[in-house]
Structure formats: structure tokens, C-alpha cells
User: Fold these one by one.
Assistant:
Number 1:
Amino acid sequence: MTDERVLLAHGSGGKLMHDLIRNLITSPLANPILDRLDDSAVFDITGRLAFTTDSYVVKPIFFPGGDIGRLAVCGTVNDLATTGAVPLYLSLSFIIEEGLLFADLERIVSSIVAAANEAGVKIVTGDTKVVDRGSADRLFINTSGVGTIREGINISGRNARPGDSVIVSGTLGDHGIAVMSQREGLKFQSPILSDCAPLNNLVAEMIAVGDIRCLRDPTRGGLATTLNEIAGQSHVGIKITELSIPVSPAVTGACELLGLDPLYVANEGKMVAIISAASADKVLTRMRQNHYGCDAAVIGEVVTEHPGRVVMKTRLGANRIIDLLAGELLPRIC
Amino acid sequence: MTDERVLLAHGSGGKLMHDLIRNLITSPLANPILDRLDDSAVFDITGRLAFTTDSYVVKPIFFPGGDIGRLAVCGTVNDLATTGAVPLYLSLSFIIEEGLLFADLERIVSSIVAAANEAGVKIVTGDTKVVDRGSADRLFINTSGVGTIREGINISGRNARPGDSVIVSGTLGDHGIAVMSQREGLKFQSPILSDCAPLNNLVAEMIAVGDIRCLRDPTRGGLATTLNEIAGQSHVGIKITELSIPVSPAVTGACELLGLDPLYVANEGKMVAIISAASADKVLTRMRQNHYGCDAAVIGEVVTEHPGRVVMKTRLGANRIIDLLAGELLPRIC
């Protein structure tokens, strides 16, 4: 079994495919909804539903601190959490390039199981396609997810108001730099690990104590892109202070070396929150008690000036416009 | 614009990506839920939910009778319909190979819009990734979908009972042969078109008049695979009669030429239904009044003998076991 590989015939709908799916995918993921093996999962649900999707094409599929499986669960769980939803059920769809080692697929599925357990979600439906060699890059994963939103919760990129505080849940840039360094074979003195993590429990704790207006996970395009999106959706300005933005010394060093700006580097285990000024302290205190929020910091505020724009007070005291990325920074980081 | 192409930078999360998504994807698909542009779609829903996912990797992306966009909508709508659900909302995730023509993407998105309108579903959330040349094959699409199931409806591959009738909604093999002939540059006297179509309205009409036990769309692996799955899930035998299985003369001819068995060729606009014998006539009559069911036929029955197995009475009167496909037939047909 150790050097067995996925063949094109595993995607044909026949016996090989049924065996592959049963042995490597549905058995480790088993739960009563998935086990019915109908074309759709069926379950009862009531209320406001959140529904999201993401395809993951990260290269390489294994990187320090995670792999494409953990990423695919956490990314979709976090997208649900950004609307204040309790993530419940995920779909899981593989596009496999012919030649993928069974052992690699097994390792990724067990990483999916672990991440789903940590987040408290179930994989209830799925799909597996195999494409010929050279038509994909080892493995792409799509996860979609549904969750329920409690009555009274209204979190959206449109809700930022002047006076609100801007919080990030921890250090920036870890995921992007971890993937990039693995891809390029770079070695740093202290190894940089991806921050890839499910943040739904952190978010639930934040909602329990504070008045949360917007949540977004700063993945592709990093903090800069996320804040620009919120400023645009809410028609407000956002002011941040460079000195208050948490970045680890290792990521700072790697970014200097590589000519990257950590504000634009992807994160996979961080949340950006816009919170009423009145509850910012309480939320921050609570966040710092959570493993995934221990480096949380207030980094700025929402303002009436320069609507749609993000401005940063730099280390040297100047004001710099933080724009959307114009070109390409790091492809295939998630 | 006509020879503009997608660049790697279009996937970076920056300005280029925002422009591409707005101009080519979210504008044509606009609806109030999608237009919020949060990381998750949010809507109210109550009751039993069906949830499904499929990734589409068909090659080529344009084929006679359809394209990957129409396929991605219809496939997921049909998977929802197989549980008796009313399909409501779809997610849409693109994995684009660098170099895809804007014009091709536009054409596919407008085909998605048309299919979604026909099915009465809305695209409410999405994702776009771009990978470097050679890391994908032009375009892969994932759609996931949710729909609601009316109380009292219980349709599952587990519900077939001895005595039930087996119905197919029309001719078999059209999709697989259409894609295959396009890919291989084969020309037949009468062109063979993919049957790719949303069947949710047909299914709703069937449910309205009859006692439907199982529904499944015979895609990859064809009718043979679908019937084997149902026989396995329901622990029953299935007997079919070759002479009663509708296959168009053109597909019959092409299959003979290519050495393919239409029972194993993929369909994308057909439904296999297991129906109580008492209501089979009524359901069949109703199906034949629907454009997508006009060639519907009873092709066999569920039996107590040979549980888990499908047996076909051939044209010559012999009994042949119809097994799962052992190897590979037609890769990347959906």
C-alpha cells in the first residue's frame, strides 16, 4: 500500500473509485449523515443560514504548520465564523492529479479529520475527481460549509462605523511566509509555521462579550486587502498604526529579506474585527485568554475621513495610504 | 478585451482580482444575497436541508450541447433533486489556469446564468483561484448547493423495495458520447448533443403524482453504476430488460464504433427513479409531458433475488450480470 498511487481509473465512477473513496475517504470521516452515501446530505436546520465555499490550491500541499487538508477545513470554518455563524457541516471535494500517493491522500484526510474535530464540524457530503498527469498539481480541495446564525447577530463588512476599534487576533504573515519558504526551500533561523487554525470558538467567545460589527479573516491579500474591503463596503475610512500591528520577529526578518510587506501576506488563523469602542477592551481581554487570540491587539480605528481608504501612521510618524495590491505577490498561497 | 487573458496576478487577492471578479463574475450573477460580498452568504431557511457538492473537470470545457458552466449548475441542481429537495442556492468556485481567455470565462459565466435561471436557483457565494500554466487544465468549477425538502418526502438510495418499478427519464449515453466525440474530433452523421439539463422541475412533477422511493442521476459510470449503488444501499436485486432501455440510434452507433457500452456512459440530464409499482404508470405519463422526460421508460423492477446485484435480460433472452465498471472508461467526462 505504501507506494500505491491514484490512477485515472480511480475517477471513472466504477469499482476502483468506490474502493478508493470507501477506504481512504469515507471510512476515516464516517458519521451518520455522510454514511447514507446519497448524492446529497440531508439534515434538519432552522433559522438564518450562512453558506460559503473555497477552493484550495496551495503549493506545496504540505507546509510547516499544516497541509492543504487542514487549510481546507479551517479556511471554510473561518469564512462561516466571519458572519457570526456556528459552523456545522462541510462538503469536501477532491480534484486529484493522477499519480498522487495513497499515503499522501491518507495523511491529508487524517489532517481533515483532526481539523474538523477541533472545529466541531462534520463532513457530510463529498466528491472525488481524478485528472490526467499535468492537468492539475497533485491535489486541489474545495470545501463548502453551512452554519447557523443566532437571532440578533448581524455581522457584516457593511457594519463598520466611525469610532469603532480595529482589532487583529494575532501576528500577521505567518501562513504566507511558511508556505513561501517551504516552496522556495528557504531556511530561517527560527522556523516559521503556518498559523492555519479554526477560529470559530474564538469568535463565539468574542460575540459572547462584545458588540462585534465586522469580522473577516485576512487570507489572500492580507490585512491590507481585508481593511480596504471593509472600508469600501461600509463607506468609512480606517486608520491604523504600524507600531501596534503584531508581526513576529521571524516574519519581519523574512519579509525584509524577501522584499515583502507583512500587511499583504496571507494569514489562515487570524481574524480582523471591527468592534464598538465601548466593548473593545472586554473583547480584547477575552481574546487573549484563547490560545488562538493570545497576541490580539487593537491596531486602529474607523474614521469618517477618507471613506473607502485605509491610512497607516508609520513607525516614522508619516501617514501612508494602504491600497489594494496592484499586481501579484504570492500566488497559490491558499 | 477580446484577447485578454487571465494572469496569475488575477488570483492574488488584489485590485486585479477584484476587478476580474466584479466585471466578469459577480455583475452577471448579481442578486441581493451575492451582492453583499461578505465571506459567507446569509439567508433564512427552515426545515430539512439537502446539501451537496461536485467539482467539474470536463475536457473540453465547451462541448456539443453545453459547457462546463451549464454542467456545473445542472449537476449540482440534479444532485439536490435526487433527494426530493427544491434546489435554492448554489456556491460557485473557479480554479482557473493562467492564460484562460476572458472571452471564454465570460461565455461560461453567461451559460451559468442561463442554467441557474432555468433551474430557478441563485448563485449566492463564490471563490476564484488562479494557478500557473500547466497546473490545471483551463478551468475547473466546483458548485455546492443547498435546497429544502418538504415534510413527508423521504427519497433515498436505501428505499427500493421488491416489486418497485425502475424508470429512466430518457435516452442514455448522450452526454458521454458528445464530450468524447468533441475531445477526439469524431464526426457522426447526426451530431450527438449532451443532454445536460436541470431536472428539478421534472422531479417536482414526479413527486406530485407518485410514490418515489429513490432518485439518482446516472452520471459517471452511467446507469449500470447507479443501479448497482441502489441495489447495494437497499439490499435488493434489480432486474432490467435491454430492449426497454432507451438509447438513441446515433449513440448506439457511436458506442458500437467505439466499443463502449451505453449502460456505462455518463448522462447529465437523466434521472433513474425507483417507484412503487402502483404509481409507475401515473408517474410515467406525467414525465412524458415534460420536455426532459419525453422519452421516459420503465426498464425493469426491483426483486428479492440476487440482493446487491443488477441483472439484465439481453436482447437475445440471456441474463447478464451488470457489474460495476472494473477499470477506466471515459476520464474527465464531468
Number 2:
Amino acid sequence: MSERRAQRTVDVAVIGGGVIGLGIAWAVAQSGRTVAVIDPDPAGGATFAAAGMLAAVSELHYQEEALLELMLASSNLYPGFIDSLAPDSYLTGYQRTRTLNVGADAADRQALADLRGVQVVNGLGVEAITVRAARVLEPLLSPQISGAFVVEQDHQVDPRRLTECIQLELARHGQDAVIRVQASGLLHENSADASSRVTGVALFDGSTVTATEVVVANGLGAAALGGLPEHLNLPLRPVYGDILRLRVPEHLQPLLTCTVRGLVHGVPVYLVPRTDGTLVIGATQREDGSGVVSAGGVYQLLRDAQVLLPAVSELELIETTARARPGTPDNAPLLGRVGGADGDISGLIVATGFFRHGVLLTPVAAEHCLQLIEGIADDRWRAFRPDRFSSRAPASVSLKGGHS
Amino acid sequence: MSERRAQRTVDVAVIGGGVIGLGIAWAVAQSGRTVAVIDPDPAGGATFAAAGMLAAVSELHYQEEALLELMLASSNLYPGFIDSLAPDSYLTGYQRTRTLNVGADAADRQALADLRGVQVVNGLGVEAITVRAARVLEPLLSPQISGAFVVEQDHQVDPRRLTECIQLELARHGQDAVIRVQASGLLHENSADASSRVTGVALFDGSTVTATEVVVANGLGAAALGGLPEHLNLPLRPVYGDILRLRVPEHLQPLLTCTVRGLVHGVPVYLVPRTDGTLVIGATQREDGSGVVSAGGVYQLLRDAQVLLPAVSELELIETTARARPGTPDNAPLLGRVGGADGDISGLIVATGFFRHGVLLTPVAAEHCLQLIEGIADDRWRAFRPDRFSSRAPASVSLKGGHS
């Protein structure tokens, strides 16, 4: 075709407009750099489904202490992150209300008590309370629950409103920041060498975005991107989840005043009350390869939610959603630069694999990516480097002239 | 306002474009008369939700033998009704496959066996079969069911496709038949006397439709219509129901080959397989005044459906719908002319209150209304006259000249 392809130039190109990509773009924009987010459907993937629990403490799993540190750091960054976005945190749905972890049967209570042991060892504040005390906090909880644990430090945000705010703020910063096209691959200084300096992004509409730094933040799509270094293995797998949205009728409001995370006969269920009078119930974890809403998943969520909160049966079911989260072998993100033959590959940063923690980890991912862009050394998050599952980079290819 | 109000003239005006109103309009159009259907959202009410079971036999309730006769008559009219509409019955989703009634526990089996007693006394064909035989017919049925009964005579139709076909055929008959405006009331020969001859319909956009006969077929909306005879009591009440639509994945097709009606610990649940690979699961009956999808209703349907057919958990949930059906005190329709002081009021026919049976009863309602319009005497359906709950008509008002 004779038509000239469109080309843009920005300081930083972010592939992927989920909460992670948008959060990074916002940090970049605030630093005075120009930024473009490349996504055909911003905030339409896992972000669209996410309940938005900011549960660094409650989400602690055994032997995931490195991840805990990352989550706590991000949790601490959250108030500042929200302040940077909105004059009133209400606009983002950010609420610093507590989280109540409740067990349905005796074994569930014991599992939560055991977890509390690990949480306390890690210096985290978790208070065991009686069922009676839990029902003072949340009167509609079933009297049949076996026990409850309060975590004052675990809060919530509304991912849909949060990402809406970021997009509005990016626009207000004078940046026509979001390009609604799918990225096809990375562009390199030496087009024959996928380990050479990254210089931009090619898009499926034939246009290109030239950038000093490219951030790969498109979740499960990251591994399918063209032009990744050949030795880089991004072991992402889809972990599907069903999530429900329900409307609380007038006479039942407030249904809950804080997030309730339950363990019901060994299966987790979360109830997250929004300020708009809706309730989010999540979330199943399925690795069955099916990205559609599962009747069995919806059934399980409604069943288990009613065990904890019988009034759920009286709510209006307004939305059922299924999405895939990008899982990794160690449940930790793929975050940082990628090693090449001669040190890290210039111009390339990866930020994906956030699994269940994308919303919580957005501020720390944004901060860390900006530090990498600014060349500030920060070794705290070395354990999350995206090349930790990769073979060693091959020896530098001998560049044959004329390709740079 | 100086603008002249639009006015149309037809032979017959039908208020309400649900399956009943459209079916009546189709019979009228075939008789060579002009017809207009007045509805802001045709086929958008109970018809939109309906599963479309044509279950005259299975729907028999104790002491509702008069209704049974009406249902059987309509069931017999169905093949001809479908033939009149579509060269291929597939287009309407009409399927003459059997219905299998199954019980979950011993009490459910007994209830179905007791009902079979009444059915057989009424000359209906219901065959008790073993669970093993039921699972030969439908291999995915749970081996835990307690018993099964085959009704060869109960079939199904797809109400959405059926009403789509009727609207297409009305258009093909050269009639711009559907007026997408809400009716406000009846027009009378004597505008001061709501028991005088009905001459047309007033619409909320200010226009009018003049007609020789007006059929009131707008379901629950009928009682709220202006200009009804004052002595006419239409005791309609909304009976809400939740209904689910699910997609059967390739590897589970065919999930069922016929309609399965279950009784699960005393609660009915219906599973209706469509030729397009979807499954309809219905239907709750709620009189809680809530027209929105109930989380408890969805839960109950998924729970009970899985008891009969465990593979339901593997389906995709694609739609949850709630609608109100127009219930009456005796569960029978309000169908026929309305008595006035001097015999039946001319120009007025009522066809509403079809409750759970609107789809099944459409052909007989259409036939009966056309007979009334044509002045053919048929006393078979006298028991369903719409004025059976009404006080006697007042003595004829003395007409003061100049109003006709």
C-alpha cells in the first residue's frame, strides 16, 4: 500500500491498559514524560472483573513472604496513589474500611487461626474475635459462622472507577494517551536481533509507536507479543474466575460495612460492599480453559455467600462476569528489566503475571517501573525479575552493519 | 396543541403484543381483516422469559379440569398454528419431542405418581418408567433420581422465535401491524359511558386507533387500562419468575433430547433443551413484588437443576431474566366478551390472565377471539369469561343525545 503508516513518538509506550498498565502510565505522566497506552479495550480484562480487595495481610500464603513485602509496600503507597488521582477518594471507590475474615465450620476457623499464626510472626495485625463480636460489627452475618478475624489494614478500591479516574487524569494531563489498537510486537534497534535495544511498538493497524522505553503490561497477552527476546520465557497461564455483582435493596442497606472474606468448607468466597449499594461476590479459581461464566461457579459463589450472609438470597443479581488472571508458577509477578548478553536489555521493562494481586500491586509496580525508567537503583524487587524462569541470554550476536 | 393527532382505522385493534396478542392478530390477519397490535415493546414481557413448554398433560393440577380441556384443545391446534406461520417448523422452535417428568426423592416420585393417577382418570397418556429406562432416554440424568414418567404428548416451542415469526408474517401480509406505543385507554361510542360500544384505542402519544373490535391482551397492564367498563373487575396479580439460559459446550451435546420437568424436594424445576444448543432452566414463582432477578432464585434453579442433571455445572450461564406472569385467583385466563346492561358490550374482547400458560394457550385464544369477532357461537369456553369476578353490570344508562 502506498499510504504512509501513522507513527507516533513518546517517551514511554505501555502495552496493555489494565490497572497495571494504566497505573504505570499515570506514574510516567506525573514525572513529566509523554506516554502512550496501547490497548484495544482498556480496563476490559481481569481489571473489569476484579473485586478490588487491597488485602496484603489476608492474602498472605505460606512461604510467600517475598510477595508479602511487595504487597505491604504497595498497600502503603495506596493513599498517596489515590490522592494523586482524585481530590475525593470516593471517586475511585477507595475505602479504608477493615476486612473481616470468617470461617463457616470448625475446620475453616482452624485454617484461619493457623494463618493468623503466620501473619502474627510476620508482624501483621490480625485480631481473633468472637462470633458475637463479629455480628456486632456486621449484624447480617449468619450466627452459624465458626469464628472471625479482623484485619484493620486490608482495604478496598473499585477497579472500574479507579481505572476510569486514571484515564480521565491522563486525558487532563493533555495526553491523548490511550491508543485503542492491539500491539503486534516490539521494535528493536537491530531488527534482526530481538535482544537488541527496544525502540518502540508495532501495532496491528500497521502503525508504530516509537519510544525510549517500552513497558510490557498486557497480562496474559505478554507471552504472545512479537519481538520478545528469544531466551525470555514468560510462563503465564490463565486462571479463570467467575464474579458476581448484586444490588442490595433499600431495606437491606447497609448489607455490610466492610469486606468479608470467608472460608466455607475449605473454599474461599469474598463479599465486597460498594458505596453505590452493590455487592461484589468473588471469586472462583478455575484452570479449565473456559473463559465463559460457569453455571457451577455462579452456583458455588451464591451457595457459599449465603452460608455466611443469608440475606444474599434477597439481592438482585445484576452481573455475572468471567475473566482470566495471569498466573505464574510461583504466584508472583514478572516485574523488571530483562537480562541480555551484555546486561539488561535497554528500553524494555516487563510488568505482568500479577495473578490475584494486580489491583493491590499497581502503586508499587508503577513506582518501580518509574525508578527503572529514571535509572534509580532499587534492588528490593530483584526476586520478581521477569527473566527468572528464562535460560541465560545467548552471547551477543555480532551485529552486521546497517541495521541500527 | 394545534397539530392534528394521527388516527388510524383497522378492523381489529389488539392491545398488547405478547405471544397472546400477536397470536390473535395473526388469526385476524389470516381471516382477511386489517389489524393493529399496540405495544411499546412487543414480546418483551412474560413472553421474553417463557420457556415455551407445551405441557397440557404435565401442567394438570387438581381440580383444574376445565383448564385442562382448554389446554388440550390448544395443544391440538398447535401443529396447524405453526404450519400457518412457517414452512419449516424449525423456525419457530416447535419440537414434538416428549416430556420426561422426574422426581428427586421418594416423596417427589410419590407426588408425580399421585398426579399420574389424576392424569390417567382424565384419559391422558402418562407412562411410569424406571430410572434405568429414563437414563437410556437421557443418559446425563443423575442416577440418584427416584422415578420418571413419560408424557409423549407434551412438546415445546421457542416463544422468542415464535413471536418473531408472527411479526414477520404480519409484515409479509402487507400490514404495518405493530404500533410501538403504549395504549392509554379504550374509546367508546358514548364517551361518557364506559359500558357503551367500544370504538377504538387511545394511545399515550395522543394518536388513536379506530376499530370495530378491540382485544385487550396486554397481560398485567389490562387492569390499568383507561375506559374499561366500571363494573369489570380484572383481578390480575404479578407472579414473578426467574429463568436462566445456558450454553451447552460442544463436548456435552446433546445434553438432553427432550424437556425434563423435575420435582426436587417438592420444588419444581424445568430444563428445556433448544435446537441451538442452549438450555432454558425455569422457573421460580415469587409473589414478593420484585421484578428483578433474584439471587436466591438463580441459586435455587441451579441447585435443583444440578440434582437432576449434574452436568449443568459445566454449562455457560448466558442470561438471567425475571418477568411477571399475569396470575388470576383461579389460575385460569380471562378470555371472552364482557357483559353489559344489555348483553355483551360490543367491540370489546378480553384475553389476559394466562399466568403460566400463555404460550400453550395462544392458538386456542386466537381461534376463540376470531370466532367472537366473526359472531360464531361457541360456548365451550364460557367458564373463562373475563367478567366472572365482576359485579353485575349496572342498568343501561339513559343515553343523552349527541354523544354517538
Number 3:
Amino acid sequence: MPYEFLINNLPKTKKAIGTDKGLAKIGDGIINLSYSIAKSIYLTKKSNSNQIIRTGQKVSKKILANALKNANMKEFAKNRADAHDLANTVEALVAYVWLVNKISIEELISLITTHLSGNITRRFDEIENATSAFTKVLISIKPFLPTK
Amino acid sequence: MPYEFLINNLPKTKKAIGTDKGLAKIGDGIINLSYSIAKSIYLTKKSNSNQIIRTGQKVSKKILANALKNANMKEFAKNRADAHDLANTVEALVAYVWLVNKISIEELISLITTHLSGNITRRFDEIENATSAFTKVLISIKPFLPTK
């Protein structure tokens, strides 16, 4: 990304990246856009009647917080983080790998779509299945994150 | 985009594209992400103290609605559209050109950044300057939109 200068002043440590509020705001946009397209693709491909579904979806904080826990990546979050903090950490990590050009929006969409499964039209099932997909996304991007 | 199939069932007319609710939801994500990065770049480059600013920003409906009017592109919106409808139309048009691969997120960020000017740290000025930037974005993408 030509925007990598936007993180020049960030120490390349787990906590500095995982707790940066500006990164979280940027990541919020990346995640919501990617999930919107992934959900549209997934629902369209699964449709029995070949119906095309275009949708937008804000990913709930609960989904992201649980994904961070399931991926065993809570060390990127601040100490005594609540669900909101944990979700912000996921957003910050995604923004970081995007800004350092290790993942594109298209790749993120593809990752989420690949890892979505089951029914996502009922809210309860969607939370479970989307959490699982985001857990796998986090595990996929972990190699591009700082190790200390 | 490999997601162009998501608009296969859409008539390629001004009104069909400009009033599609699913496209508007997708475009909402594209616009908010692009504006977040553009605003971060703009504020960072303008900073006297070489401060790096990372921010996220939901673009207000008012900005988008006025941009559509200023670009003389109200014919893409539904009849008797209110500000909310006009903003949705801008979002749908941006999603359309992105899905048909005529503009990338990076190009959109570059367009917005180029056309931002003046002070955008005060809310009042930001609305005026962002409206002007989005007006120019709309004029730039118009050649890729249906003509009838």
C-alpha cells in the first residue's frame, strides 16, 4: 500500500499495533466491507433459486471478540480487555496487515468466503459461523504480525 | 472484480443501479473505508508537526446527498428522493463502478485525497470540503455509468 507511512510512528510490537485506536477505525471499514461482499457471494452461491443477493453487514463486536479468543491471539489486546476492546484489536490487526500490503481487500474477501459455512441467514447461526471464519482469518494473518 | 456476478440481475439503467438497496449497503462500506484513509493521508500530509494521523470516519449522508446534487446526477436517484435516498444513490453508484472493475479502492482513495482541500478538522468546513471532493469523484465515475 502507498499508505504504509500511516504506520511509520507505530512501534512494531503486538500491543502497540493491537491497541491502536486509529488502526481499529480503519480496520472497522475494511472488515465491514469485506464481510459484506463475502456474505453476498456466499448467500448468492448457496441460493437454491439462483437468486443474487447483495447485502451490507456490520460485523458485530461479539463475533470479532470471540474470534480473537479462539485464535489464541489475546496477547495483542490490552490487559483486562472487554469484548469491545478485543474486537477493536481484531480491527487494528486487519488494518495493519492491509497497510503493510500483506493482504488485499480481495484476498480478505476470499478468505472469509472460503471459511464461511453452514447457515448464515439466521442471526444465531451467523454469529457462530462468522466467528469461525474470522478465527481462521486471524490465524492466516498471524505470520505477518509482530512476534513480540 | 471477480464479484461482477453480484450485479448480473441488475438492469443496466441509471435508476436500477442508483436505487438498488444492496448496492447502497456495499457502497457505504467502500465510501467509509476510502474516506477514512483519504482523511488520514490528508491530515498527515498537512500536519505541521509531522504528526501521523490515523482515523476512521463515516461520511455523513448530507455530504453525499449534496455531492449528487452538485454533480447534476440526481437522475440516478428515485423521484422525490430525500437526502437519505440521494446519499444511498451515491453509495450505489460507487459500488457499481467498483464491482464492474472501473475503479479500485486505491484509486478512489487517491481521487478523494486529491480533491480534498482546506481545513477538514472543523466539522463545518469538513462538510463543505468533503462535499466538493465527492462531487468531483462522482463526475470522475460518471463515464462508467449507464447513460439511460
Number 4:
Amino acid sequence: MKQDKILLAHGGGGRLSYELIKETILSAFGNPILNNLDDSASLPSECHRLALSTDSHVVKPLFFHGGDIGKLAIFGTVNDLAMVGAGPYYISVALMIEEGLTMATFRRVIESMKEASKEVDVKIITGDTKVVERGGLDKLFINTTGIGYIPDGINISGRNARVGDLILLSGTVGDHGIAILTEREGFQFQAEIKSDCAPLNGLVTDMLDVSKNIHVLRDPTRGGIATTLNEIALQSGVEMMIDEAKIPIREEVKGACEMLGLDVFSVANEGKLVALVPEEDGEKVLEAMKDNPLGREVAIIGRVKGDSKSRVILKTLIGGKRILDMPSGELLPRIC
Amino acid sequence: MKQDKILLAHGGGGRLSYELIKETILSAFGNPILNNLDDSASLPSECHRLALSTDSHVVKPLFFHGGDIGKLAIFGTVNDLAMVGAGPYYISVALMIEEGLTMATFRRVIESMKEASKEVDVKIITGDTKVVERGGLDKLFINTTGIGYIPDGINISGRNARVGDLILLSGTVGDHGIAILTEREGFQFQAEIKSDCAPLNGLVTDMLDVSKNIHVLRDPTRGGIATTLNEIALQSGVEMMIDEAKIPIREEVKGACEMLGLDVFSVANEGKLVALVPEEDGEKVLEAMKDNPLGREVAIIGRVKGDSKSRVILKTLIGGKRILDMPSGELLPRIC
């Protein structure tokens, strides 16, 4: 392609659109289903429960320490599908591009998506490309929507929390949000903070291998674990007791949050999960998670205490108790 | 909800996000699958070939004569799924909103999506809401991604055009593009031009009822019928002969195109389809289409002539022949 910038005509549906798709997108993602280039992708017949999940990615900046918008888009949707136990994955990629984006930036994102989708063995089977005039959007947004098949015997939902369930957290919190914020605002901390952006499907497979009784899985992205735990409490109508001392947090993330006046429990993560499992399966799920690189720092952070109220109680470091509420404002827009 | 504008916090994943989703989105689209509010929607087990299609809608203005972005988003994805013969439909809705959008506008779009999804019996089963700071995007973009089941015995693809196939066009071309353009640029024409925005699934059902041998279906959106016919020619490796005199065009659309210097064959449609059918089934498919309100003006516009070249030949009104190429520039950005 001769152009070194994205033009409006790249989104017009004519010759330039066709060339852009053929030369960058098909050459990166090509597979027999995508290559058909029909209005809809057709999959072979399967008899399974199906999971469907969608996410738009508007992260700013496009590239950050530990990831970029492309990787985030693939892993984000894979993670949402993994949270109901589904796999393998078929994904649609819808690109919304600002006129004038450099072709080099565009190719770099596509390359990153290609690598990410290889890493998790996801097939990109359909897509859409829109180009908006300069100023109509900020550089590049990506929507990824995925489907996956849910194996028989698995029933994971935010509605399934039960009294007595153990609450597991797969690792440290706050890394992604703080990485984006430092990148964006130009903060300098002593240690460089890296996004935890990672695909959780392998970890979930390892967990399901030892227990089919996992009640709830959720990845605490926007709104952090404060939002995730409250959502589960509301959906299941349960009260949780969380022990602050058990929640893994990197020292540098803790320091950054203190300095910036942020509640680390409300900060986004992109490679962590919260699992609610019945007590009898807790130990084996914990061990399975520890054996996976993405679950090495797993901790049991609390327990479902009752079902008379939908709320989350935090036992604080100094021994007091307070309600851990959903964040009510917005400190970190465009975090994912 | 007390706010009369969308705030960044509505996209933060915290309390305001939760309220926005509960009070506007769930109350409009609620169904047992969506109401679970899990990271992925889970569907019951089915044994079928699956179709997946995605589309981002960035149309400007949000409301226009004959439709709006919400209706376009639902019908657009339904139409893409219908073009491989799939149905019924499950859709994900991903909203990208500019901070400061009025709640009244937002509600009006949601209401329109609700009505549109009722009209075609599509279920919205999962979604995502992002809010971007003022200036980060222009008002509202909507991605809709849909799945549908393809009935056994149906095999419709842009690759299936065969020599001898009749080429049917369901109605007039150019209406949507010209409607948007006049709305946007404030042109005044004698007759008001209305977008043809409509769901094509019913028409496709009527066609499939009389013939399982439909080879190709495609809705000529961005890039118009010039793009659609060329795409099919390229995918199937065939040469088509199109008779300009047979292509239905409204007088007012023709006039507007002449005045604006636009090629009507490159202008977008949102409620039309091109069908390629074997000659022996042509008559019955034509009759079935005529009986449907959206196919009343159907015409046989040409035929697949050979398979030595991938191109589209237009027999012009004055009796000459020219190659009908894909449009190479971009005259109408943000048309859908």
C-alpha cells in the first residue's frame, strides 16, 4: 500500500477499503472462515451452549508498558468468555479509525492482535472497518466480540455465589490502571509499573480441571475488585467478608495509589480473576492456580458470610470493619 | 436517574454505570439472558451452523429522515446475518458515548433500538458501555455484533456465483446515502428523500421458502451496488453483465446524484439486497420477492456471463458498455 496514513477512503467500502483489508488484515488474521469475506462468518455445526461477549476498547494511550490496545482487545474478550468457562474462541474485530492515523501505528496494532490471538488460539472470523474524519474520534477504537462453547456440566455465573463460598483472587490488584495512568500523565515512580494485561483462559482451564463446581468467575477490570465483588454480592444476594490484609498489592502500586489519592480496590486490572468456590473445593482450586504462572500469587481473600444483605464488608488492616462500596465517581477514564 | 447528561462516571464501571445500565438499558432490552449481567451471555445448547457478524455504526447525524443510529445498528446486523440465511438473532450492543451527550438523546436512541429489535424479534443478550472524554469521539458510536443459526441445506456465500446466475436487486438504490447527505449538508430537494433503512430478514425468509438454491445474497451498503457486485465478482471469479436500464432508481435520488456529481451505484443502501440465483429458480424467487413489501420493486438487473475474468460490465442507458468499477475515493464518510 502506498499511503502512509489512513484516509477516509480506507473506510468507504470501495477499492482502498478492499486493499486495506486484504493487505493488512487478511494477511495478519487470515483463516478459511475469515477469508470468505461474507457479510457474516459461518461456523461449522456444533452442539454446545454458546457464550457471547462484547467489549469496546478506547484505551489512551494506544501503547503502554505491558501492552497495547490490540493485545487488550483480544485478551479482554477472551477473558470475558473464560469467565463463564467457555472455549475455544471465535472473535469479530471492528476497527474505528481516525482519518490520518499513521499506517505504521495501524500495522503495529494489527501485528499485536495477531500475536495475541496466536497466543490464545483465537480465530478472528469476521470484522468491520470504519474511518471517521479527523477529530471524530481519538485515533483508534477497537470492538472485539467473541463466542465460545461452554462445556457440559459447567455453570458459572455471578448469580451462583452461595453462603460459605471461599473468595479467591488470582494475584495483585491495581497494576493495569496505575500503568496506564503513569504512562498518560507522565508520572515517574521509582519502579516502573507494568500492566498485568494477560489471557486468563489457561488459568481457568487449570481450575476447571480440578473442580467443576466453581460458582463464580469474574475479572475485575473497570471499577476494580470493589466493583466486581459488589456486582457479585448484588447478583447473588449475598454478604461477603473480605480481609484487606490478604489482598496482594505490589508495593509500588500501593505507593502510587497513596500518592495519587486513589483507592487501589477501585483500580482496573486486565489479567486477574476473582473466583468463588465451595469450601470443599477451595484447596484444590488454590493449588491448581498456584501452579499456573498467572495464579502464582493467588490468595483466599474472604468468604461469603450470609444472604440477608447484598454487600461487601472489608476487614481493614487495623482490624476495623467498613463497607467496601462500588466506586461512585470516575478517576480513570479510558483505562481499557 | 438525576443526571441529564452522560458523565464520565457512567462509563467507570462503578455505581453510576450500574444505574445507567439498570435504568435505561435493562429496562429497554431486558430478557432472561441479558439480565444475568455476566461477563459473557450464555445461550442454551443448539446444534446448528452459526453465523457471526459485526458492524460499528458511526453515522452522522444520529437522527435522519427514515431512521437513526439505533435502528441502523439493529437492522444492519440483522441484515448481515440474513445475507447468509441465518436466523433467529442474538445481538450484543456496545455503546461508545461522548461525555456530555444528553440523557434525552441517549434514551431516544435506546428506545429506537428497543423498537427495532422487537420488530425483527432479535434478543440483545450482552453489551458494553464506554464513555470517552469530551472531544474523544463525536457523540455516539454503536457496535452491534450478532449471531444466528443457519438452517440445514442453506449455503449462501459471495463465493457461490455461477455462470448463468440471474442477478436480482430488491429495489431502488441510493436512498440511504442521499438521505444522510441531504440531512447533513442541509440540501433542499423538491421531494424529501428518506433512508431505506429496513430489516431484510423477512424478505430472505420468503425467498428461501421458494428456493434453497440461492447462491449469493448481499446488502449493498457502503460503496453501493458497484462495490457489492465487484466483491462478488472477485470472490467467485466471475464476470457479470448488468443492464443499467433495469436498475430501479427514484427520480429524486437520480436528480440529487446528478446535481452533486455522485455515482448513484456507489451510494449506500440500508434496506436492499442483491441476490444471485440459478436461472431455473429465478422466476419463483422474483415472485416471492414481489409479494413482500420490501421486494415490491425487485428487478432482474443482469446475469453472470462467464468465469474467465472477475469484473462487472455495465450496459449503459445509451447502449454502450463500460466496466463498473469499485469506487476509488470516498465521497460520503459516516454514512452508516
